[in-house]
Amino acid sequence: MKRISKISQARETRRSHLHRARLQRRHRRLDRIKRRVQRRREKLAIKANRSPTGRRVVLPDVLSLIASSEMRDKLVGTLGKIRRYVVDPHVRTVTLCFDGVEALHPCGTLLFVAEIERLLADSAGRSKLRCTYPTNHVVEQLFQHIGLLQKLGLQPRIEKIEAENVIVWLYEVGDEDNLDSIVGSLPELLISSGNKALRVAVTSGMTEAVANSSEHAYIHRRKDGTNISVPHRWWIFARREEDDISVCICDLGIGIPRSLRRTFPEEVASFFYNKPGKKKDDHRMIELALTVGRSRTGKSYRGQGLKDILKVVKEQGVGLLKIYSNKGVYIFDGKSGHVTSRSEASNIMGTLVQWRIPLAAFNS
């Protein structure tokens, strides 16, 4: 009986081994099939990408840098996608879908418009970029008001721009290092108001931001995956509406953090030496920029613009100053004295300075 039991056990073991071997062969065969299918899919994808094709990019419903980190990431991600499609030789057209855009915040809108105009300055961008008409009437009025729809190949279809939150906006773009070309268009309170300290601080801040485009922002490559070379350009939104004056200036250079590391290495080293444990995050570099107070040119009257605005906003207890540069965000509320300083995950690859000051403060 023992011999029979051993024989049965051996047969069972052999059957088990054979079963496992069959399962292994089956798994290997399935793996080979999967690999063949995957290779086939990859070949089809490569073939499809080689043929000229069009791409559609759906814009976020809100163009904003400040509403939330999620909205900022969506906007920055969308801009990155547009840049990749424009430089991709296998993409024939890039259509910007404005259908779902419902709200335009000055900071996000100016960044978006600046990026698109930068791409349009290149031959590849001019030949590829298209757009659809916005479904939101106010959004269409603003894009028509600043000439964006026309630059993207659409004819204006609104006879008269009359939305109150559109007609108040001044939009300018320039390549020069001064504001002479647009002084006549600026809100009157910015160039002739009773509060001289505030007026000088705001106008000098604007001059500094514009001059920065020539002296600091474009001293090195932007590293955005494109080989686009455009003039040292700046973009500006300004408006007088209800109880406030708002100004927003943007450049698409290397940003304050990269600029400081290259132009003021000693100040950067000293700043972080006195703050052990602090990382060299982008928002820390913006904080440092507000204390440096001198220009790469060495001229004594330069490099004070942002410091002057911050100083006056602090001393007079009015207004709001926002600075976005690469991943860094710095916000100072003049009324409460509260400072918000942080670094985000997404990189706007440039610098945007925005401030809002009550009208009453200009006449105080």
The arrangement of helices and strands along the chain is HEEHEEHHEHHHEHHEEHHHHEEEEH
User: What is the helix tally?
Assistant: 14
| Text of the CATH class of the largest domain | Alpha Beta
Which fold name corresponds to the CATH topology of the largest domain?
Heat Shock Protein 90
The helix-and-strand class reads: alpha/beta
Q: Distance between the terminal alpha carbons, to the nearest Å?
A: 113 Å
* Total beta strands: 12
Largest sheet, described in full? 7 strands, antiparallel
Q: What is the total number of structural domains?
A: 2
Principal-axis shape: extended
Pick out the low-confidence regions.
295-303
Alpha carbon gyration radius: 28 Å
Spatial sequence of strands, sheet with the most strands: 6-7-8-12-9-10-11
Question: What is the level-2 CATH architecture name of the largest domain?
Answer: 2-Layer Sandwich
- Percentage of residues in helical conformation: 40-55%
CATH superfamily of the largest domain: Histidine kinase-like ATPase, C-terminal domain
Q: What integer is the average pLDDT?
A: 80
